[in-house]
Design brief:
The protein is of the alpha+beta class. Among the domains are: 142 residues, Elongation Factor Tu (Ef-tu), domain 3 (Beta Barrel); 93 residues, no CATH class; 61 residues, GidA associated domain, C-terminal subdomain (DNA polymerase, domain 1, Orthogonal Bundle). It is built from 17 helices and 22 strands. The longest helix has 34 residues.
Length: 626
């Protein structure tokens, strides 16, 4: 194969691009990833943390599918916490504070060493297209190079026509320190004819530890834990953080902080109409918190270390686009930060995105079938959401390059599937963020069982390497053996399985029977993890059975495929609004149609009747309705 010809090309080496390129390469595709700056591969541009509510579940799913984000987080982690531990195991979510430099270096090394994966530093300026077949056949760069491909993945993050805002001053940028990609935004409109929108996100200031009085703040220690993000043994060759329990700190803003914001709203680009892009409501700027929630006298802030070998701290909760002098006043009004020095000012960034109703659940574009998109270009926020989309995009780009049909992850199998289904069926007017509440079947979609849900699929499709699959099989078999034993063995007239239910999903609780009768070697790490799984499974057994019945009903509707040629205009009885939405989204199945906002059960029943007629007509070409 020629040096400039690839099966898959990935544009952008953020969290989405890295997972896309690695997934394609694991599938056997000759892959090229192009990035503006190789030293910024997998840069943690905002908070140097991975995981959190629903996000931690996604990272576990990425790992179960053979991806890299989990294991890179494990080597870079400087603090680990399991969130929501006071609630049921269904919503427990792992989160790790990372050394941002270690994370970036480890992912860069992983990419550089991966077989079949090339990396080039350049900026893509245009597509090479076959307009007749609606295929993208390659890309051109600012270095004068042309590279050709069978499939293309776009994972541009905030770089598409990016603009940085520091108060009323703005400048072009993909993020602080990197140039924007302006030519590619034009190419998406001019060459590909895609509908483009504008979104906004932001980041808080960073301050130096030597100027902070931590005694005025609440200390937050790392959890004592045995957990990792990755289910598989770590690789010692990667750069690794040594200090694993660095603390964070909590502090509250006050009325002086809020007053400083109110007095300077005339200098806020967001409130003066300079920013047109819409930001996420779930992670509002500090200006929004003050204006929209005036009844809150204070707001909780977290001071989080940026790394093991830096004294910079990230102030989680005070994202702003106010001018630098105002930022200084805001920060110095907070207890413990009266003398704080800002090392990096906060800013807002606007960027272009592609309205995601133009893609399938496989991340394939509906017009350009060999184009796949992942991350903020699809209107999402967060490293984890981006990485999950990237893995699916890279997988399906490789499948398409091999001449096969791309695969969609169902929403009853993964949070990644929930996210992708939401993106293509919901109206995306602000950056999308995952929550456990978005999943109907979150008892099944837990962080503890992602490998049990996804690793078999990943191995069969070519995503999960043999050594990891064998490790998974050992664990799966251990679970099955121990489950059978606990359901058969009795203590005081009841099965051990029945006794496990008393723990209510918490394996750290006091055992309701002597440990020696379990026949489990608790000095073995795999055995301890298997026991934790048994405790959770026994706790949710009845609920899971009911949820499985609901999933079965969903799958019946998923089996009702809606052909691309189906004529919605022929369905009498649909509301005009429903008709417009169905023609815009073009759902692949009845189940997906039912998740479009405003589509009623009665309209799904109408579609079912017409689909039955459509099938009969298609199967009987000589009939009167043919």
């Amino acid at each position: 194969m020629s040096d400039n010809k690839y099966d898959v090309i990935v544009i952008g080496a953020g969290h989405a691009g890295c997972e896309a390129a690695l997934a394609a390469a694991r599938m056997g595709a000759k892959t090229l990833i192009i990035t503006v700056n190789m030293d910024h591969i997998a840069q943690m541009s905002c908070n140097p943390a991975i995981g959190g509510i629903a996000k931690g579940q996604v990272v576990r799913e990425i790992d179960a599918l053979g991806g890299a984000q989990g294991k890179i987080t494990d080597v870079a982690a400087i603090q680990f916490r399991m969130l929501n531990i006071a609630k049921g195991p269904a919503v427990w979510s792992p989160r790790a504070q990372c050394d941002k430099v270690c994370f970036q270096r480890a992912m860069k090394l992983e990419m550089e060493r991966y077989p079949g994966l090339d990396i080039k530093q350049a900026m893509v300026t245009a597509f090479i297209i076959d307009d007749r077949r609606k295929l993208i056949t390659g890309v051109e760069t600012d270095m004068g190079d042309s590279f050709y491909c069978a499939s293309l993945v776009l994972a541009n993050g905030t770089f598409l026509n990016g603009t940085l805002h520091y108060g009323m001053v703005n400048m072009p940028g993909g993020r602080a320190g990197d140039p924007p990609s302006t030519h590619l935004s034009e190419a998406l409109r001019e060459q590909l004819g895609l509908r483009i929108g504008r979104l906004k996100t932001g980041t808080p200031p960073r301050i130096l530890a030597k100027t902070i009085n931590f005694t005025a703040m609440q200390f937050q220690q790392s959890d004592i834990h045995e957990e990792n993000f990755s289910y598989y043994p770590g690789e010692t060759a990667l750069p690794r953080a040594q200090q694993r329990d660095m603390p964070c700190y909590m502090v509250y803003s006050n009325d002086i902080t809020a007053g400083t914001v109110r007095d300077n709203l005339h200098l806020s680009p967001m409130y003066q109409g300079k920013i047109k892009g819409i930001g996420t409501r779930y992670c509002p700027s500090f200006e929004d918190k003050v204006v929209r929630f005036p009844h809150h006298e204070r707001h909780l802030l977290y001071l989080e270390p940026e790394g093991e070998f830096t004294d910079e701290y990230y102030i989680n909760g005070i994202s702003t686009s106010l001018p630098p002098p105002v930022q200084v006043k805001m920060i110095r009004s907070i207890p413990g930060m009266e003398k704080a020095e800002i090392s990096r000012y906060a800013y807002a960034i606007e960027y272009d995105f592609i309205f995601p109703d133009q893609m399938e659940r496989t991340t394939a574009n509906k017009i350009w079938s060999n184009l796949f998109t992942a991350g903020q270009i699809n209107g999402t926020s967060g490293y984890e959401e981006a990485a999950g989309q990237g893995l699916v995009a890279g997988m399906n780009a490789a499948i398409t390059a091999a001449g096969k049909e791309p695969v969609a992850l169902p929403r009853d199998l993964s949070y990644i599937g929930v996210m992708l289904d939401d993106l293509v069926t919901k109206e995306i007017v602000e950056p999308y963020r995952l929550f456990t509440s978005r999943a109907e079947y979150r008892l099944h979609l837990r962080q503890d069982n992602a490998d049990l849900r996804l690793s078999e699929f990943a191995y069969n499709i070519g995503l999960l390497p043999e050594n990891k699959y064998l490790e998974y099989c050992r664990y799966r078999d251990r679970i099955n053996d121990r489950t059978a034993f606990f359901k058969a063995e009795k203590y005081q007239g009841k099965t051990l399985w029945s006794h496990l239910k008393q723990l209510k999903g918490d394996a750290a609780g006091l055992l309701p029977f002597p440990e020696e009768i379990t026949a489990m070697d608790m000095s073995d790490r795999l055995e301890r993890r298997a026991f934790r799984q048994l405790v959770i499974d026994s706790h949710y057994e009845g609920y899971l059975r009911r949820e499985e019945e609901s999933i079965a009903k969903l799958n019946k509707l998923e089996c009702w495929k809606i052909p691309a040629a189906f004529n919605y205009d022929a369905v009498k009885g649909l509301k005009n609004e429903s008709l417009m939405k169905l023609k815009k989204v073009l759902p692949a199945t009845l189940a997906q149609a039912g998740r479009i906002d405003g589509i009623t059960p009665a309209e799904i029943a109408l579609l079912q009747v017409h689909l039955t007629r459509f099938r009969k007509q298609s199967n009987n070409e000589t009939g009167p309705d043919a």
